[in-house]
Specification:
It holds the Pfam family MFS_1. This is Monocarboxylate transporter. With about 325 residues, this protein is mainly alpha-helical. The protein starts with a helix and ends with a helix. The protein has helices at about 5-30, 35-80, 90-100, 140-150, 155-165, 170-185, 190-195, 200-215, 225-255, 260-285, 290-325.
């Protein structure tokens, strides 16, 4: 048992490396539908939470806890062979090599010149290149995005339902009905930003604003049904934000800086992760209710929504300026 902490640390490092690597691989292979691809990756976590508990329980009953872990380790090692199929896409290699190689201008000689009358001369319109989002916009906004998701109040929905007088079976229904909403938020909502109905920054800002509204409405729900509906809406918006987090990082920092940005975000979040149980316990034990926690969540979400709103306006202004300069 003396080496158990070392095993736990090693397991945590492995999980962290795999998670960040999967994010980078998804961002490299998808451009237009990055949000949907990221949401499908996170949707796998939701489906695994529904399927694997029963599988692990059956394995534990059959082989014991240590045998269950050995079977799980064997499955993981076999899945590792599939990672050999995950290669860097050729278009990413080409873009990286083109950036590394300096451009060489070749000199060519002119052998003949043809002259034509200019009576019916016209200038062919120049096709404007695709306008992309600015990569230099507010890096602190992304860090605030991750920070605001730390105090995930969705983990308290069962306890809060019990505090409001709901039966235990009704409280567990909150988790059941939140799962479809979570899948919807991770797969369907990011499609709005991928299809350019609104920009991704605008989608994130709107999601944060609506999430703040749900956090304020949650303590005022009059019945269990209303409470379940509000919880489902909050879960859907949180799922969308989690799916959009790596997409926003890739858009504003570049794919090559995703790992660095993710690491900086993790270091920034470490104090909040350590203090999160004490903060939740303070509102539950000292204040007697989670109402203050949800109000704090609403304030944080409003602040981050405002930051992303500013970024969205600045991006829109830059896009208009570039379009105007290309059309002149």
């Amino acid at each position: 048992m003396d080496d158990d902490p070392a095993k736990i640390c090693l397991s945590g490092v492995g999980v962290g490396v795999v998670c960040v690597t999967l994010v980078i691989v998804v961002m490299m292979h998808f451009d237009k539908y990055r949000g949907v691809a990221s949401g499908m990756k996170y949707a796998g976590y939701t489906l695994a939470s529904l399927l694997f508990p029963k599988i692990l329980t059956s394995l534990r009953d059959a082989y014991g806890f240590r045998g269950c872990m050995l079977v799980y380790a064997a499955l993981t090692m076999n899945v590792t062979a599939l990672t050999l199929l995950l290669k860097e896409p050729p278009w990413h290699l080409h873009s990286r090599s083109s950036k590394a190689k300096p451009r060489v201008h070749e000199r060519k000689s002119i052998s003949w010149i043809s002259t034509t009358p200019l009576d019916n001369a016209h200038c062919a319109p120049v096709e404007s290149p695709e306008i992309t989002e600015s990569n230099s916009a507010a890096p602190t906004v992304t860090i605030q995005t991750v920070s605001s998701l730390t105090l995930n109040s969705i983990t308290t929905i069962v306890d809060y339902a019990l505090d409001k007088g709901a039966a235990r079976s009704q409280a567990y229904l909150c988790v059941t009905y939140c799962s479809p909403a979570e899948l919807f938020g991770r797969i369907v909502l990011p499609l709005i930003g991928d299809c350019k109905i609104v920009s991704r920054a605008t989608l994130v800002a709107a999601s944060f604003a609506l999430l703040a509204v749900t956090m304020l409405v949650l303590p005022a729900t009059p019945c269990v049904l209303a409470y379940i509906l509000v919880c489902a809406c909050a879960t859907m918006l949180l799922a969308c934000l989690l799916a959009m987090k790596p997409v926003v990082i890739a858009d504003y920092f570049g794919i090559e800086n995703v790992a660095t940005s993710w690491g900086l975000g993790g270091v920034t979040l470490l104090p909040l992760l350590l203090c999160s149980p004490y903060i939740i316990g303070y509102f539950r034990d000292a204040r007697g209710s989670y109402d203050g926690l949800y109000q704090l969540q609403a304030g944080i979400h409003c602040f981050v929504a405002g930051l992303f709103g500013i970024v969205s306006v600045l991006d829109r202004r830059r896009w208009k300026q570039r379009t105007r300069s290309l059309t002149v």
